[in-house]
Amino acid sequence: MSYVFPPAPQASLAVADSADRFPIRRVYCVGRNYADHAREMGAHDQADGREPPFFFSKPADAVVPGGDVPYPPATANLQHEVELVVALGPETAALGDGGADIPVAEALRCVYGYAVGFDLTRRDVQARAKEKGHPWDMGKGFDASAPTGPLHPASAIGHPQRGAIWLKVNGETRQNGDLADMSWRVAEVIAKLSTFVRLAPGDLIFTGTPAGVSTVARGDVLEGGVAGVGELRIRLV
Ligand code: MN
């Protein structure tokens, strides 16, 4: 079998302290997973507890490493969201119904490792989409919209449940939250997402961002980190 033209290269992520790379299948993102960010986005507190998580996607090749990242076209309001990124490993296919309907109690067994990622967002494009009930794709899934640092295997760092998640722009703190403030924990996110789609090895999940998102410009340096996981630094060019 051959292709009518050479296929695009496999999207992949660096693995810390390893020459091997993690092959990316799909990239899912959770919306509004920290109450303080949900509020700054205009959501109202739920009287009866947590709002169910909702999901959107980015293309696998939107994942790029730290360093110089191109400022995207078609926006006048690019914003940063620092997030804990979960990478699903080989175990995923063996859990639940072959990666679907994974029970919360088993969900962390899916996790190959964790990384720090930035969910770059064209906030103006997203706002117009929300207003009109249009899809978010062009606000969220543009080229290089998911800079992500190297993956740290759970076998080395465990499963971070609390600790700082922060982001600075040109050295000034903009986001400063705590993983413990996630509305839906990593295991719950995996379990819920697996009721909508069959998860598989190679899937990444961006787990949401705390308050403090702000507008950035070409030339800005963004540094972010998650305690116990690592840091990521990009420059918008
Ligand atoms: Mn996000």
CATH architecture: Alpha-Beta Complex
Classify the beta-strand content into a percent band.
Answer: 25-35%
Could you tell me which ligands this complex binds, including any ions or cofactors?
A: manganese (II) ion
Total domains: 1
CATH topology group = Fumarylacetoacetate hydrolase, domain 2
Radius of gyration: 17 Å
Number of strands: 18
Q: Which shape, going by the Cα principal axes?
A: globular
Number of helices: 6
What is the ordering of alpha helices and beta strands? EEEHEEEEEHEEHHEEHEEHEEEE
**pLDDT < 50 runs, ≥5 residues:** none
State the distance separating the first and last CA atoms. Answer: 40 Å
Mean of residue pLDDT? 96
SS content category: alpha+beta
In CATH, what is the homologous superfamily? Fumarylacetoacetase-like, C-terminal domain
Write structural notes for this entry:
By secondary structure, the chain is α+β, with helices and mostly antiparallel strands. It has a single domain, classed as Alpha-Beta Complex (Fumarylacetoacetate hydrolase, domain 2). Helices cover about 15% and strands about 30% of the residues. It has six helices and 18 strands. A six-stranded mixed beta sheet has the order 4-3-15-8-9-12. The N and C termini lie far apart (about 40 Å). The chain binds manganese (II) ion (MN).
Question: What is the structure about, briefly put?
Answer:
With 237 residues, the protein is an alpha+beta fold. It is 15% helix and 32% strand. The chain has helices spanning 35-40, 104-107, 123-132, 137-140, 154-157, 186-193, and strands at residues 12-14, 21-23, 27-31, 54-58, 63-64, 67-69, 78-79, 82-88, 111-118, 121-122, 146-147, 152-153, 164-169, 172-178, 204-206, 215-216, 221-226, 230-236.
